[in-house]
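Dear colleague,

As promised, here are the two records you asked about, laid out in our usual form so they can be pasted straight into your sheet.

NAME FIELD: protein one
SEQUENCE, THEN STRUCTURE:
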Amino acid sequence: MPTVDDVLEQVGEFGWFQKRTFLFLCLISAILAPIYLGIVFLGFTPDHRCRSPGVDELSQRCGWSPEEELNYTVPGLGATDGAFVRQCMRYEVDWNQSSLGCVDPLASLAPNRSHLPLGPCQHGWVYDTPGSSIVTEFNLVCADAWKVDLFQSCVNLGFFLGSLGVGYIADRFGRKLCLLLTTLINAVSGVLTAVAPDYTSMLLFRLLQGLVSKGSWMSGYTLITEFVGSGYRRTVAILYQVAFSVGLVALSGVAYAIPNWRWLQLTVSLPTFLCLFYYWCVPESPRWLLSQKRNTDAVKIMDNIAQKNGKLPPADLKMLSLDEDVTEKLSPSLADLFRTPNLRKHTFILMFLWFTCSVLYQGLILHMGATGGNVYLDFFYSSLVEFPAAFVILVTIDRVGRIYPMAASNLAAGVASVILIFVPQDLHWLTIVLSCVGRMGATIVLQMICLVNAELYPTFVRSAGAACGGNDPAASRDQGRGAAGDHRGRREPPEESKAQRKQDLPPGANVGTQRPLRQQREEREDPGAVGWGTGAPFPVSSALTCPTFSKSYGILSLSFFLFLFLFSFFLFLVGAWPYFVLFCSSPPACGCL
């Protein structure tokens, strides 16, 4: 019986249908960029000082220049450690009294300004920026500066919590339905964030957006990797992540053109609604349909792929089947990743690499936004380095292997980050160069981990390791049929791989046939007992979560996400429209449109 990969070899592994679907789904990857790193522009903190009543009137009466006004009325100017005093403290002076002169008005109150009493800002702040951000609108500075970090932490928390339920929905109800559902909630919550009337509601909507946005990205990734042949999965996986880099480059330009944070958030959220047209443009994964015993629907989709690619389907298409005849499934659990010494070693190393590189990647980007330079150009230049990073991976992945490029990139990222600690603030160009080097190294490591992780774990725990080690969901099938790749990037012939698997398996086990559940568990104890390329089509939930999903947990997850959807839709209809009307009735600040 032909498998999906067998049919794709005849009708086209990366034909017109796959190329069109790939371009469609790349929009999902690009849309994640403003959600993941939009805080650089949404939460930009400009130079600021306390607002003092009477200063504007006195400055206008005396005809002060902006520099003179700052020199006469703002404490802490010129001091090396006076940033806090300059931005968060003010002179406790009544600037409306008539005794103040136009030349050094504070001289009549005290011969030395350091003797004047200082107090906290009580009347707000003045921001030196032509645009606006959540910082300037909600005054998230000084004592409330931590709320900017909380805004981004809600997105990251949403990524983690959302993966616990989105994976089950994709497994139980299909990749396409999961993609459409998460896309709809993502679009609605993005619009609600743009029209949020206060900080608390904005935080809740941002958390909701984080709950579904990573699941939407993962569903799109899974769909495209299941549509292409085994020879193209690795390239498509890398290029799909390059679309995320394209979204970062576009974000810098859009943010420069739209300096108002509400209009910026609305601009990057509205295109998400276009992804709802995937209902008519993108079919369901035939591999998932086969795993659900919906062979007729899978045959129709494969026949449609053949027609779109201009090829004739094979005569035995109606006998389409999975790579293996799976009659009982063994769901991985978190404990499986620590059963043997080799598994424990691989798990801890990959978890450490994934965590450190993810923190380093986001930290370098946020650091560049706080260096005091041109945040738009800095973000743009640093985003460009991700393209040569993808090129390096494509060139070295099958020539040099995984270990050496990953080790060299990790070393470069670490050294660049350590040097950044000792770079003076006035050497802005050196800060940018080191940040770009560190970001390029972190990007290479993160994408390399996705491939290495799939090849170090045995079949039945490889998907569980995907979540804890940061693996891409479909990478575990990169070696699915023709050849098996080892962790150095070499490929061995199918016959040798199959013969090796027969030697590794316990006596009586047959390659390509379903083995008893107890025997599978025994094989799982030893990472060398299962071949690298024997895995059946994987479930998305295994690639997203570590715990085993029970039926009750799945129902709870589905109910939770339905509640989130209904809750966000209710807020959109009842609570958000008045703010949306008020928001649109007034022109954006600074004439940005």
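NAME FIELD: protein two
SEQUENCE, THEN STRUCTURE:
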Amino acid sequence: MDGVHAISYRSSDFSNAAAFDGVDDLKKPPEKELKGDSKRSTFAKKIDFAFSIAGGFVGLGNVWRFPYLCFKNGGGAFLIPYVLFVAIGSLPVFFLEVTIGQYARCGSALAWMIVPVFKGLGIAMNLINYYLNIYYAVILAWSLRYFVASMSYDLPWSSCDNDWNTGSCYVYGSNSTNGSSVDSNSVSSVVEFWEHGVLKISDGVDEPGTIVWELLLCLLVTWIVIYFCIWKGIGWTSKIVYFTATFPIIMLLVLLVRGVTLPGAIDGIIFYLKPEIERLKDIQVWLDAATQVFFSYALCKGMLTTMGSYNKYRYNSYRDCILLAVFNSGVSFVSGFAIFSVLGFMAKEQFVGQETLMSAFVDLRPGFFKKPWRKEIFLAFLSLSQFVIGLAMVTNGGVYVLHIFDNYGAAGWCLIFVGLFQCVGVAWIFGINKFWDRVCEMIGFRPIPWFKYCWLIVTPAATLTLFIISLVYYTPLVYKRTNVTYEYPTYAIVICWLLALSSMSWVPIYAVYRFAVAKGTFREKLKEITTSEYNESNRMDAWESSITVNDYIASY
């Protein structure tokens, strides 16, 4: 193994007995001093990393998107491809992104110095994250709008006597609309509140209408809260996520208890757990499952790489990643019980993402941001730009714009594409054996090499296959409203693809640019762009390189 702090592994490596020569106190290790004019912050406590990751990827993807896709794709049938893609897709990429950050000691903007030809991945990830933050803030604004509405004595969605209600409105539990019987054209008062009371929805994306002022105020409050939660950096953000990571779980458990005690809840749970095997023949079920695991694990957005970079070099992120994966999928599974029990009765993240973006700019110009208030001012401009773009999503036609961002800006092809090239870059260019040795050095032992072979063969093959199949079976975007399926016009579909390509294209564009500016013959250029620019002497201090594995493991 190369590097100034290389480690020798004994033949008993697989029994967790790898030896690190040396000794020293692990209780209060010295702060890592990076070369240059910046000193990278690290998590104050080991638990901060786990909470920061949980606060960043446990959210709407679990509580809303997962149950919706289960319902759409045949209940239990969806769980089969979901579990498969967790094992061969999301979990390997999850651990890969964390360890890249932990190894390179920098966020997603600079971490790909380990494979210079793929530095475009850092740009792609941060653009995806930028788009995601824009429309997630709008979804949070919707939630705030509902929260405010719930403060009224008479809930606005509990009757058909409001200004926005139509003649087809009916209150759930009754058997008549405004004067006539309920039929297939009738619309629940809950749905009418959503479409006409909250969104004030227009007939299409080409009818933007005016800004809905209630949503505008909610969006403004949302961005103000986000700004002040992260303006002091990771040290402050890591404390905020203690609340943001635990409170939703408590609320979910309350909803679960309430749901399973409702009459008829068992019918919904049976639908959730009983697979319709025939649905597995539908390629869309598999595509939805693959997209969901990438989305809910917050992969390919730079967040995991950035959070991993705040770890000490010697940190057992392997253990945390396994536990966090179980936690993430467990929340999704429990959410399904909660939601489907309620469906049976009816008879039939944010702070961490913005911190990641800010970290990308700070890593690029650390000296500039050391000056007082520069980071806070730049964060304000960054948040303002996202707020301004988000205004298009709080108009009468805003939900159609948000649907475009949700499907093309920060999901689907973008995530699968970036995940594929991350695996290729590390396994086939940086070198799978070299990187695996570094991973073992960081976590303090040699685990079963499942991740190693996933990065090398399984995950690239699976993501490439999914990417090709999703293109072959591509269907234009639609938005389903009550009793209406809206088809986006051709120009909107073009915008969809331009949005997706705005992030993905940076990978080949930067690769071509990097090759063009490299010096020498073709072979010399190829060697230059595929040779790591990372100075391995930065990866750990003397005290870290001298720790015995027994002391290291005992510290946990």
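A couple of things worth noting about protein two: The longest strand covers residues 478-481. The CA atoms of residues 227 and 275 lie 44 Å apart.

Best,
R.
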